[in-house]
Design a protein that fits this description.
Order of helices and strands: HHHHHH
Oligomer: single chain
Number of helices: 6
Helix content: over 70%
Distance between the termini: 46 Å
Number of domains: 1
Protein name: Stage III sporulation protein AB
Radius of gyration: 20 Å
Structural class: mainly alpha
Largest sheet: none
Strand content: under 5%
Length: 141
């Protein structure tokens, strides 16, 4: 799901900051690999189209707070996603682009952290699995 958000931020920097597309249309057009992400983008498009919140940032916090609740266990990730909404709704295009790129960099750092953590776990799990297989083979002989 983090990859989907990185894609959202990069496309947002191009389409929204470049004023090539309006926000409701942008969020309705984005699709990722995660169903949670797709549901959030769809809801975000609806909130912006219906103007059911006072501001885009307020809508972002409401939508993603509800969508991620109970589905994402890492509180740090939830907080990062909920708080990055303001980047999409900056009035100044240059400031928007800069904030979106900063948020994308933060997500990229989180992805690297999880990737390194996974690699470290695999360094332990693989040898243990191999040793377990050898022990079972010896016991069967």
């Amino acid at each position: 799901m983090l990859y989907d958000f990185m894609l959202l931020l990069e496309k947002g920097a191009f389409y929204l900051a470049g004023e090539r597309m309006k926000a409701p249309q942008f969020f309705n057009s984005i699709r990722g690999k995660s169903e949670v992400f797709n549901e959030g983008c769809r809801r975000m498009g609806e909130v912006l189209s219906n103007r059911s919140c006072k501001s885009g940032d307020e809508g972002w916090k409401a939508v993603w707070g509800a969508v991620l609740c109970g589905r994402v266990s890492d509180e740090k990730i939830k907080k990062m996603i909920v708080e990055m909404g303001g980047a999409f709704f900056e009035k100044n295009a240059a400031a928007m682009e800069q904030r979106l790129k900063e948020c994308a960099l933060d997500i990229h750092k989180q992805i690297d952290f999880y990737r390194k953590d996974y690699v470290e776990k695999m360094k332990v799990i693989c040898p243990v699995g191999i040793l377990g297989g050898i022990m079972i083979s010896i016991m069967l002989i």
